[in-house]
Specification:
The structure holds 2 protein chains of 2 kinds. Chain A is mainly β. Chain A has 7 helices and 30 strands. Chain A has helices at residues 5-27, 30-41, 44-47, 60-66, 71-75, 125-128, 437-442, and strands spanning 54-58, 107-111, 114-116, 136-143, 157-163, 171-179, 184-193, 198-208, 225-235, 239-251, 264-280, 284-300, 315-335, 338-356, 359-360, 368-381, 386-399, 406-418, 422-433, 453-466, 469-481, 495-509, 512-526, 529-545, 548-559, 566-576, 581-588, 597-603, 608-614, 620-628. In chain A, strand 25 and strand 26 form a beta hairpin. The two termini of chain A are 52 Å apart. By secondary structure, chain B is α/β, with parallel strands linked by helices. Chain B has one domain (36-148): 3-Layer(aba) Sandwich (Rossmann fold). Helix content of chain B is 30%, strand content 21%. Chain B has 5 helices and 7 strands, in the order H-E-H-E-E-H-E-H-E-E-H-E. Chain B has a 7-stranded mixed sheet with strand order 2-1-3-4-5-6-7. Chain B is globular, with a radius of gyration of 16 Å. The interface between A and B is large, with 72 and 52 residues.
């Protein structure tokens, strides 16, 4: 082929330019390009919403490095509100060890952006707070009042779990775990991406043989459980359908025994969750959710059981069922510098049935609750780096059975600055909480016209991110008027609390990482105490060397009740035998000094109160085999 | 500059969307190591990658696999389709280089020289020496850590 002089020159110039640009690109080595790719393409980058609140993020990489198998493994490391269990052995991070039914309704749990609730029995945290997370890609913990777009009911903390994407995790995975006291779990997942849709199924079984709690009787308290869990979804470009089923048969620790010496204490749960979401054109989105929970309770004691203000007697065999229906319609649109989000939400919680010793009976005529809410939110861009956000939400809750209805008004105002290295955000809140239906049901006379809790607060967060450093500092100040969430219902003073969290992550290189977190809180008038100071720290190292991954994490807690230091040391070593097979040896609570909560006990004959220290974290060694196929 | 990304709207099917800039940088880095040309012809039937590559100034999206320098395959059905329909063995001298985004595809098909894929939340880059040799490809020394003899 003949070339003109000009064409040859152009070709030579192009070739020279290519050599030059290639050299420039190679100057940025493959490792640094890989690191940048990892950071910018983590799935969390697609879901994190700065306006949802103050974020503590667990990326897929971090979850893998921590070797977290359950939500509990992650929740126990978070600041401000950390993992705890109540006297029935259920996940209840805000539990104080008292006789209250459930404390953590202000923590809301979401799977792929859809809320999981237990309806009548409270927040989804109750059953799902220690769920198997083999199907999860990353987890986002948002602190303070969430944006109204996400919450149907009032919340102080929202936990978002996002499932794995078959495009990155196609095919199957088998996970087998065996550990102390016969603890064992099996999990199998399969996901596939086709041209038009993607789907994923995860099925797991956990036989949790847990540490017993000595109650100074011949029969120590047991909290073993056997859980079957199904998570599945199918999604297209604009639609998604989830199906989740959980069957959890539990030994329910102290259960309904006043003095924590039950003869029988067992509760079995069966939960079904289904949801369908659809994008309706460019601006509209709709979601429909159905949830159902069945609870079988078997309790026996040699003294009368704790009941709804009265005594059931010495035994209780009861079955209850409840259903929850939720629907929301959201409109989102950018108009100039405004991003407007508005919508309506509805939720209907119905206590379907309750049978005691085979006879249908309700302890209260209060059997359903309807929540209707409307919200509007605007995010106004002041510039490329600054944003103002304003939200208003109104909820109306209606109830049957002689219970008063409630009107709730929530306001949220914020400012966000996002610079190259530094970011800052601050929010002002006014929100209201209504007493949960279960507590209301169990105390019908006392809670007919219960005042709303009104919470006002301000939060601020400063973050610095440059190269391998990631630093954040968060401050919050809140006041609860007529508080019943973290205070006793009979408290006369408002609860005030100040919290601060300092977080620092450092990447030595792609193989070695450091995570540090310090937390301090000062509460006034809480849990019947005039003052409570709470301090915690989390220090961890994650290292990789050739085919081995190492993780060492230490959680430290102390509070002003006794200033006792608690340490939970978790260590693991993984041997990546090949790309498909990994063997992991892991130990949790290795020092056997993890944080404890005092479980309140009462001798009903003498009225003497006592405390039984219980840690929600077992000491456990496990060996795990992971096979990808 | 870090952009404010609070205006994000999450669409169900778009959760896995690639970040354009870093994806282009990474794939150009990989493909430039495989093909010594200033402009590389790339074929892929993956809509998401096509959208990203369409904005590249160094990679040209090809409509025909046989006329491309590199074929990027992202799933099993695409691999079967390409292998079944194109009869590469007949005209091996013109055979494009196969590269995939899934480890199992790399493991199970001997025509593929390398993969860039996710494993436990970390991206992994892998090339197989003897398969590169079949194409007479010698990678720059900085890729030494990403080369394996066999799977």
């Amino acid at each position: 082929m003949r070339y003109f002089f000009g064409q040859k020159m152009i070709q030579k110039s192009l070739f020279f330019l290519w050599i030059l640009t290639s050299t420039v690109i190679y100057a940025e080595n493959v490792d640094s390009i890989l690191k940048e790719y990892n950071e910018k393409n983590a799935l969390s980058q697609k879901t994190v919403d700065e306006n949802k609140g103050h974020l503590i993020l667990f990326t897929r990489e971090k979850l893998e490095r921590m070797h977290a198998k359950t939500l509990k493994d992650v929740f126990k490391t978070t600041p401000i509100i950390y993992y705890n269990e109540n006297r029935s052995g259920l996940s209840d991070p805000a539990s104080s060890g008292s006789f209250d039914a459930y404390h953590s309704n202000f923590i809301r749990l979401y799977l792929d952006g859809v809320e999981i609730t237990q309806g009548w029995f409270g927040s989804g945290v109750m059953l799902y707070g220690d769920m198997n997370i083999d199907f999860v890609d990353h987890i986002e913990f948002y602190y303070a009042i969430p944006s109204f777009e996400t919450s149907t009911e009032s919340a102080y903390m929202t936990v978002f779990l996002y499932s794995k994407d078959p495009k990155r995790d196609s095919g199957g995975k088998l996970d087998l775990v065996g550990g102390s006291r016969g603890y064992n779990s099996q999990s199998i997942s399969y996901g596939q991406q086709t041209e038009d849709l993607s789907y994923m199924v995860n099925f797991s079984r956990t036989d949790a043989k847990r540490e017993t709690v000595d109650n100074e009787t011949a029969t120590p308290l047991s909290r073993d459980f056997e859980r079957l869990q199904l998570f599945s979804y199918v999604k297209t470009e604009d639609q998604i359908f989830h199906l989740q089923v959980m069957k959890k048969d539990t030994d329910s620790l102290a259960g309904m025994s006043w003095d924590a010496t039950p003869l029988v204490s067992e509760i079995d749960y069966l939960n079904v969750h289904m949801d369908y979401g659809i994008e309706l054109g460019e601006f509209w989105r709709a979601h429909f959710v159905y949830e159902w929970l069945k609870r079988d309770v078997r309790q026996e004691d040699d003294i009368p059981l704790i009941g709804s203000g009265t005594y059931y007697g010495y035994t209780l065999n009861a079955t209850s069922k409840n259903s929850t229906y939720s629907v929301d319609l959201t409109y989102k649109r950018a108009i100039g510098n405004n991003r407007i989000t508005a919508g309506v939400k509805g939720r209907y919680k119905n206590f379907d049935s309750r049978t005691v010793e085979g006879k249908e009976t309700f302890a209260s005529p209060f059997t359903h609750e309807k929540i209707a809410s409307i919200f509007f939110q605007d995010q106004y861009s002041l510039s490329d780096q600054e944003l103002l956000t304003l939200g208003i939400s109104y909820n109306y809750i209606s109830r049957n059975g002689g219970m008063e209805d409630d009107s709730l008004l929530h306001l949220r105002f914020g400012y966000i600055y996002s610079g190259e290295d530094w970011s800052y955000k601050t929010y002002l809140y006014r929100t209201q909480f209504a007493l949960d239906p279960l507590t209301r049901y169990l105390n019908p006379l006392y809670s007919q016209d219960m005042a709303l809790q009104t919470t006002v607060g301000i939060t601020q967060e400063l973050t610095y991110h440059k190269n391998d450093h990631d630093l954040s500092f968060m401050l919050s100040l809140f006041q609860d008027e007529d508080g019943f969430i973290v205070s006793s219902p009979s408290a006369t003073e408002d609860t005030k609390y100040f919290t601060t969290v300092l977080k620092y992550d450092y990447d030595f290189n792609v193989h070695n990482k450091l995570y540090v977190q310090l937390y301090y809180a000062h509460y006034k008038d809480i849990y019947g105490l005039d003052k409570l100071e709470d301090i915690s720290g989390y220090f961890s190292f994650a290292n990789s060397y050739e085919d081995f991954d190492f993780y060492n994490g230490l959680i430290w807690h102390k509070n002003s009740i006794d200033w006792k230091n608690y340490f939970d040391l978790t260590s693991s070593v993984s041997w990546n035998i090949d790309e498909d097979l990994t063997l992991t040896l892991k130990g949790q609570n290795l020092l056997n000094k993890a944080k404890e909560t005092n479980l309140l006990t009462v001798d009903i004959l003498t009225g003497t109160m006592d405390a039984l220290p219980v840690s929600p974290i077992d000491q456990r060694i496990t060996l795990e085999l992971e096979y990808i196929f | 500059m870090r952009k404010i990304f609070i205006l994000l709207i999450l669409l169900y099917g778009h959760l896995y969307a690639l970040e354009r800039e870093s994806t282009l940088k990474m794939y150009h880095q990989i493909f430039s190591a495989l093909v010594a040309k200033p402009m590389i012809n790339v074929y892929t039937d993956d809509k998401e990658y096509r959208k990203v590559f369409a904005t590249s100034k160094r990679m040209l999206l090809s409509a025909e696999p046989e006329k491309s320098d590199i074929i990027l395959i992202t799933n099993k059905s695409a691999l079967f389709k390409i292998m079944r329909e194109k009869q590469w063995a007949v005209k091996e001298d013109k055979k494009p280089i196969f590269f995939v985004t899934d480890y199992r595809l790399l493991k199970n098909s001997f025509d593929i020289v390398g993969a860039f894929y996710w494993r436990k939340g970390r991206s992994q880059l892998l090339f197989i020496k003897n398969r590169l040799k079949a194409y007479n490809i010698t990678l720059p020394s900085e890729y030494e850590d990403f080369l394996v003899d066999e799977l």
